[in-house]
């Protein structure tokens, strides 16, 4: 559904989403507020940036998009057309990918629950690269593969247990994810590798780890790779030589959210020498996979909301918008500070300004920082929340009977397209069971 046209946006690093006040107001009048607006060019630019950052890696390199960050079908289709891999953790995500034209052959599947039914479902649909994180999960995968009659390329998810300074840490002692490198029991890496190597139909493929989110110091990756290399060399001495075809170092590439953070090329510069030396050490020209959900999608999207009221107490000002944490749940869960800007802005400011939502909940206050531009905030103006492309629309809730807002996309040729129709209250009523009232009465 094409709505209008805007100027094309290039894929250069400088071409972050730029939307004029005029076009944002036009879309607000046409589709109402709040609404989300995605920039296709930015999605494609971010893929290119990661690929360029690792172009000096001497093995094979693949980017994998973590669908959990934003599973809008048009976003998925955009990444399918880029030819990258997909990191999935549920069979429903696989359903979305297939419906969007993606191939199960381009999937690396990392289940958290590792049930037999889940494995049987994904193997029947054509997934062949699976990450296991427990001995019981491996047994379920072996049984499922036998039932389906398929061979599986299996990676072991390890927990390097290195120090990570990150917004969300995935590498902690006895953490939820992965298995220990130094554990001798059945839920240890050496036991899992041994079982995979000795099981027909299970092809040992390599290792996977994920250290966290918003990582700015590449040394934690270097430490994790050093521990993994040491483990592999030790395991080969104990079990005999085995190939390592894939090493997946997870995600964590930081998004700026309005502040300076290292670009992918800066982070990779500290890792490429280490990664290339591992190729020499292991004698395997393995495929390196870097997963990304937040980096690939976050800065591609803005949310536009309208100021509906202001309230002043001395030098304190409350600015009320018609959205809330039901549209940006990270703001409440993680106190996440999205860059915020009033359009058109103004010079009039209050010493203390709070940006609050329309929900009847004291948590419905948007965290702001020195990067927020709230000058000139008055009823009727728009507020733009930037870099909201990751973990926003996937966490929408209908609190206070709030229907889902429209999601729009600006294509690379400048067209505006509806990529998710906004709900109306009748549709929400029926979705919540309103249509079965007469049946139960």
What does this structure look like?
With 441 residues, this protein is α/β, with parallel strands linked by helices. Helix content is 30%, strand content 23%. The protein is built from 14 helices and 21 strands. The strands form three sheets. Strands 1, 2, 14, 15, 16, 17, 18, 19, 20 and 21 form a ten-stranded mixed beta sheet that branches. The chain has an eight-stranded parallel β-barrel with strand order 3-4-5-6-7-10-12-13, surrounded by four helices. Helix 5 packs across helix 6 and helix 8 runs parallel beside helix 10. The longest helix is centred in the middle third of the chain and has 21 residues, at 219-239.
What's this model, at a glance?
This protein has 441 residues and is of the alpha/beta class. It has helices spanning 21-31, 40-53, 73-81, 91-99, 116-124, 135-148, 189-197, 219-239, 264-269, 272-282, 294-297, 330-333, 425-431, 437-440; strands at residues 2-5, 35-39, 60-66, 85-88, 107-110, 129-132, 152-159, 168-169, 179-180, 202-208, 212-213, 246-248, 287-292, 301-313, 316-321, 340-343, 352-356, 365-366, 382-385, 406-410, 415-420.
